[in-house]
Amino acid sequence: MNIVVGITGGIAAYKAVNVIRGLVLAGHDVHVVATEAALRFVGRPTLEAISRNTVNTDLYEAVAEVRHVAIGQAADLIVIAPATANTIAKLAAGLADDLLGNTVLASRAPIVIAPAMHTEMWQNPATVANVRTLESRGVHLIGPVSGQLTGKDSGAGRMAEPDDIVRGALAVAAASGSAVPNDLAGRSVLVTAGGTREPLDPVRYIGNRSSGRQGIAIARAAQARGARVTLIAAHVEVELPTGIDVVRVETTAELLDAATEAAPSHDLVIMAAAVADYRPVSVSDDKIKKAQTGDHLTLELVQNPDILATLSHADHAGRLVVGFAAETATDRDDLIRLGREKIARKGCDFLVVNGVGWTTGFARDDNTVTVLDASGAIVFEASGSKSSVADDILGVFATALSGAE
Ligand code: CTP
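# cytidine-5'-triphosphate complex -> structure
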């Protein structure tokens, strides 16, 4: 699930770190929207390290991406912890004077708030009325509980414990139908991600621009849908998920070895890695020196084995193999035609075709894909953040897996 965690300015903001952590460990893609006041209580680097995503605060940042509505539109669940008396009042009034207010107004996702404030503020008739307004609109409250407050006093108004917030928020999502289905429970999914690199000498390599974002988003989404996940990661530029088996590789040969070893014990194999098609015929043990090569350097390359074709042709009843096709064609018909030729050549069960170019596909957070089946028919199209694309296409493969039984 794509979960927005809103953090507002109260001492309990430090406990929000454990809310984020709990949601990430449960396999969710967490995007933090913090108010300026929240960042006085907890540091941006901490929130970014734990959520593994950029923290959003400023309404006027990345305006071209229409972020003030995009974050809320993409959310499957919004959790605001801590929710101060001020934030509760603003939410009740429908104010949109900061990024969190805009995000909430632009979202149709269920909203969970974990209030935190002093007893007097919690019991103040203004707060009581605001909470009632929010509840009447379907906002879910977790806590507050009674206990030690920030000063010497104790009483009602303490934020609920992070584990209880995580559990409660996920239960709200499940009950509202916005939680991801558990349709890969009991399944095993092997995902390859990132770009392989072929060394020329100890300091240089031939590589590609893959960041691994899409493949890692698939691994996370598969985990959230209940699968046991193995990720074979070549060179990636994003943090690796926790709670799954990770195998690191560098070259296409290493990826081939790791994938052929792992594939037989997995139900679904997704080859999202950008595999180097060629490798140097010879790798120099020493750094190649200009003094020896002169003005021109000619490299002799030899073709690498096709891992996807190898895995697709390995006979394994019930297992599905999915390939990706990165194509630079800009015309949709050309893209599909190239995809059809590729799936016929590779022999996989599905091919996810995506357009790439100087400014599309790579190192971005969004993607547009078309899924072809083995006959070349278009079975699905998806567009959006790489995590929502990952989730959408996994739905197709989960259905196909149950059909293949
Ligand atoms: N692939 C692979 N082994 C290779 C090359 C590619 O397993 N040696 C896989 C990729 O992981 C991807 C799919 O094949 O799932 C298509 O990769 P792509 O780079 O689009 O196609 P290529 O087979 O390399 O063909 P071309 O570069 O000619 O388009």
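# post-check
The first strand starts at residue 2 and ends at 7.
Residues 252, 271, 273, 275, 277, 304, 306-308, 323-326 surround cytidine-5'-triphosphate (CB under 6 Å).
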